Amino acid sequence: MAVSHSQPVALHCVPVPGFGGVARHVSDIAKAGLPGYRLVVLCPPGALSAQLKELGAEVLEANFGTDAGFTASLRTLTSIIENLQPAIVHSHLAYADVVAAAAVNRLKARRLLQRSIHAPRLFTTEHGIAGDDAVYHGSPWRSRLMRAVHRVRLWGTDGALAVSQSTSDQMRRQWGARQVGVLTNGIDLSGISKAVVTHRVVADDYQLRVLSLSRLAPEKGLDVLIEAFSQLHQQVPGASLEIAGEGEMLPQLQQQVRDLGLEGSVNFSGFVDPIAAMSRSDILVQLSVWENCSYTLLDAKAAGLKVIATAVGGNPEILSGAEMVPSLRQMTRDVAASLVAKKVLEARDLPNTTFEWTTTEEMTSHLADYYGEGARCLSSE
User: Fold this and answer.
1) Tell me, what's the pLDDT at 20?
2) Where do you find CATH 3.40.50.2000 in the chain?
3) Would you say 42 and 12 are in contact if contact means Cβ atoms under 8 Å apart?
4) pLDDT at residue 379, as a whole number
5) According to the model, what pLDDT value does residue 208 have?
6) Which residues, 6+ apart, have CB-to-CB distance to 101 below 8 Å?
7) What is the structure's pLDDT at 204?
8) 3-state SS assignment for residue 191
9) Quick check: helix, strand or coil at residue 25?
10) CA 186 to CA 221: how far, in whole Å?
11) Alpha-carbon span 352 to 193, nearest angstrom
12) What is this structure's pTM?
């Protein structure tokens, strides 16, 4: 999308190089275009910057982010702000949030003494906050520290966004955030649907093809899924389970599959094209401890797959009650597995319904409105 350099700059800061949910959010903004603004993305070299370059977006690969360290990141961002003179600095993920708050607010303080100093407005989008801090922080002291850090940095932020109402509620509860706009992740509804239909692999009548698309991490409930599939497989011998993704739990999960004698029915496919994986599947199951606004669920719904997920975080904003199971944290694995297996069988017979959601173009249009109207809250207070 052609942009004019006379437009005000919105500098989006991402502190990690990989291509996860946050990277997809930012690359979708770049692909759809940010009306009225020249989008520039600051990030370390890696998968995100490569994707942005393919899209023709402006990327600043610099000594910035978690690997660079705080001091170097602060120096880098301050220098870029002084040279680029952005109207907006917009941070994503906690590390960039803290660096951006320090850089912008230091410039604002200097501007009180020297009016010629440029100080942009500061915005932030929260993508990952859980009702239980231990999901992301691991220890009580780290949870308390990060709560205090976020409370302080939000004082100097001009606008805060959340990717779901649940995320907004947690920002208010845990960090004392006041006005928080809700801007959900947008998706290409028709594009995903058409791509899956084009690559669709039709199942035999006796098959039931279950898919998991997630990191192989403890908070994703994959041990429960495998146990549930073992029960399901007894009732539907032709059933198969594809566990796509990479992570530290792979050896443990592979051993669980061997112990249950499911080697011929469970496939660990590693990093895959999600469209291809969904094209050869019937039901997606996601048993996360917490989700904010899951791209996996959004994509699966857009693809026309049946979906079963835990009723946590932002999932109830995407799914109906018939598509959810309660949080599994307080259940034994056997009880949780039985519940999931039963729900998957029920999902097979659920009617197909039309899925409606925010498109990427609507997402970027709302974001531009949020900038342009002085951080007007997008959600009802």
Assistant:
1) 87
2) 9-186+359-372, 189-347
3) yes
4) 40
5) 93
6) 91, 122, 152, 153, 156, 157
7) 78
8) helix
9) helix
10) 26
11) 13
12) 0.91
Q: What's the rounded Cα separation, in Å, for the pair 296 and 169?
A: 22
Fold (CATH) for 9-186+359-372 = Rossmann fold (3.40.50)
End-to-end CA distance of the chain: 35
Task: Kindly state the DSSP code that residue 121 receives in the 8-state scheme.
Answer: E
Q: Tell me which CATH code domain 189-347 carries.
A: 3.40.50.2000
Query: In this predicted structure, what is the pLDDT of residue 246?
Result: 94
H helix runs in the chain, sequence order: 21-32, 47-54, 70-84, 94-113, 134-137, 140-155, 165-175, 189-198, 222-235, 250-259, 274-279, 295-303, 333-347, 360-372
b/e sequence 152-163, b meaning 16+ C-beta within 10 Å: ebbeebbbbbbb
CA distance 24 to 43: 13
* DSSP string over 40-60: EEEE-SSHHHHHHHHTT-EEE
3-state SS assignment for residue 29: helix
Residue 90, H or E segment? strand 88-92
88-92/121-126 β-pairing:
parallel
Q: Is 124 helix (H, G, I), strand (E, B) or coil?
A: strand
Q: Contact at 8 Å (CB) between 282 and 348?
A: yes
pLDDT at 377 (0 to 100): 44
Instruction: Give the CA-trace dihedral at 154, 368, 121, 22, to 10 degrees.
Output: 50
| DSSP-based three-state secondary structure for 181 | strand
- Which residue has 């917009």 as its token pair? 90
* Ranges under pLDDT 70 in the chain: 1-5, 132-139, 206, 373-381
241, β-bridge pairs: 210, 266
**pLDDT attached to residue 330:** 85
